[in-house]
Write a structure and sequence with these properties.
Helix 1 crosses helix 2. The strands form 2 sheets. A 5-stranded antiparallel sheet has the order 2-1-5-4-3, with helices on both faces. The longest helix is centred in the N-terminal third of the chain and has 41 residues. It has 10 helices and 10 strands. The protein is α+β, with helices and mostly antiparallel strands. It is about 50% helix and about 25% strand.
């Protein structure tokens, strides 16, 4: 293709030289072939250089368009701010964050030409934080970051993470601040939801704790013996004041058959098998040699901490009643 172009250029050069030659005076001596050859060579070289320059310009243009597309459609916003916080440059992503409108030249002109201060988009409560961010970036000459609450032109509130670094810009001939913007609104919403859920859980736990305290207080005030034990380990989880006073100590944490029946193994009359798979209470009579009392006992399954099912026992001292019955029977037999 370049060979055909070369031949075409040579023919053009010859025609021009013939025209020049006929217009010259006859007494002028000139080596036409030599002149044509020199001019043709020069013209071909210029044309080849021109073609190469066009190709280079086209490559530069495509590269520029590629980087421009990468810059404007990056997943994060880019801005160039001056020391006063005026937006000097901004990509389409950041522009979209600030203005929820069509990204036309007319719409974005005011921002792109450095006429808009970034502070107008910052929530009033975050103004001081933004100016501190600018000052810190300029004074430290290092990367600095902050989180801001912004409002776009539709009044929509969003949260953004900003990271900035200051440098001297040769084009503007002043100190400028390069800034990236990352939308953290969804993250903030999730954080707020987690905080709200944690508060709910905390409030719920506080309420449960208060209710549990109230429940234990009620059990403590009942003038009958009450204790709660673990189904699996037989550990006493709670003993009310009445039972503690009768035993003479707090048995919480001890094994029920050791503390209350002075046994080394589970009691043969233990009722946990009777109530473990049954939601109804079980009533029975028992004489406790350790407590030296006849007891009318009610056992049932209840839910304790963490909704764990445990064995609940309420024992009524019926010793006087039994003794009276024994005396009555003895009198009748006598």
């Amino acid at each position: 293709m370049k060979t055909n172009k070369r031949e075409e250029l040579i023919q053009k050069a010859k025609k021009r030289m013939e025209t020049v030659y006929h217009s010259m005076k006859k007494d002028q001596e000139i080596d036409i072939d030599k002149l044509i050859e020199n001019l043709t060579t020069y013209e071909v070289e210029l044309e080849i250089q021109n073609e190469e320059l066009k190709e280079a310009n086209e490559a530069v243009k495509k590269l520029s368009e590629r980087f421009s597309d990468l810059y404007h459609h990056a997943p994060v916003g880019y801005m160039l701010l001056d020391e006063r916080g005026i937006i000097k440059r901004i990509n389409n992503t950041a522009l979209g964050f600030l203005k929820k409108t069509n990204l036309s030249k007319k719409v974005s002109y005011g921002i792109r030409e450095g006429q808009k201060p970034f502070i107008v988009y910052v929530d009033n409560q975050y103004h001081e934080q933004f100016f501190n961010h600018l000052h810190h970036a300029i004074s430290s000459k290092q990367k600095v970051s902050c989180e801001l609450k912004l409002k776009n032109t539709n009044g929509e509130v969003k949260y953004f993470y900003l990271e900035s670094i200051a440098y001297h810009d040769d084009d503007f001939e002043e100190k400028m601040i390069k800034t990236i913007m990352i939308d953290t609104t969804q993250q903030k919403i999730q954080e707020n939801q987690i905080k709200a859920q944690n508060k709910q859980l905390t409030d719920g736990n506080i309420k449960l704790s208060e209710e549990r305290k109230q429940f234990l207080s009620i059990l403590d005030s009942i003038p009958e013996m009450i204790y709660v034990s673990d189904f699996d380990t037989n550990e006493i989880l709670f003993a009310n004041k009445k039972l503690k006073d009768i035993v003479g100590r707090d048995m919480t944490g001890e094994i029920c058959y050791e503390a209350l029946h002075n046994k080394k193994a589970i009691c043969e009359f233990c009722t946990k098998e009777k109530i473990n798979n049954n939601d109804t209470p079980y009533f029975w009579n028992n004489y406790n040699p350790v407590l030296e009392r006849y007891l009318y006992v009610m056992n049932r399954k209840i839910k304790w901490n963490d909704q764990k099912e445990v064995r609940f026992e309420l024992a009524v001292d019926i010793s006087k009643q039994i003794e009276s019955e024994i005396i009555l029977v003895n009198r009748l037999n006598y």
